[in-house]
Amino acid sequence: MAIVADLLKVTHVLAACVFLGTGLGTAWVKVAADRQGALEARLWAQRFVVHADLVFTIPAGLLLPASGLALARVYGIPWQTPWVATGLVCWAVAGAFWLPAWRLQYRMLADVETAVREGTPLSARYLADTRWWLILGFPSFTAAMLAVWVMSTKTLPF
């Protein structure tokens, strides 16, 4: 049983690292490309963001609650334990803000592909979607960080 618990813990911690690292990294890349301004840079960055979420963020985001709930079961910790329940709520909040941002990524990708293909400037919708992507990303990332805090310390910061 100890090896199962250890594997679950390592999986859980690595999934958290991948989730948060990918989120921060893709935001950095997108913001840098948008500030640089070249359509080709924006296209590359937008493709990178979409691909990174498919390869890293989504699998890690699914693995986190699964491994966390499995750990709770292995250790006999009820899901209603305040720090476990708070971590799950934080994860749900992170997802609730991330899902609409994820949808925007595909729309922004289509917009920048069109601009590059047609040789036109980016649409106002792309710029508005980028703004909303950042606005939605802040509470999503903050909630995910709070989940890490609660899971790591087993205390509530409020």
Describe the structure.
Helix content is 88%, strand content 0%. The protein is mainly α. The mean pLDDT is 95. It has one domain. It is elongated, with a radius of gyration of 18 Å. The protein has helices at 2-36, 39-75, 82-118, 124-153.
Short description:
88% of the residues lie in helices and 0% in strands. The chain is mainly α.
Provide keyphrases for this structure.
4 helices; 158 residues; mainly alpha; single chain
**Overall SS class:** mainly alpha
User: Compute the gyration radius: what is it?
Assistant: 18 Å
Strand and helix order: HHHH
What level of helicity do the residues show?
over 70%
Approximately what portion of the residues adopt beta-strand conformation?
under 5%
Give a short account of the largest sheet. Answer: none
Spatial separation of the terminal alpha carbons:
34 Å
Strand and helix layout:
Layout: H1 2-36, H2 39-75, H3 82-118, H4 124-153
Helix pairs in contact: 1-2, 1-4, 2-3, 3-4
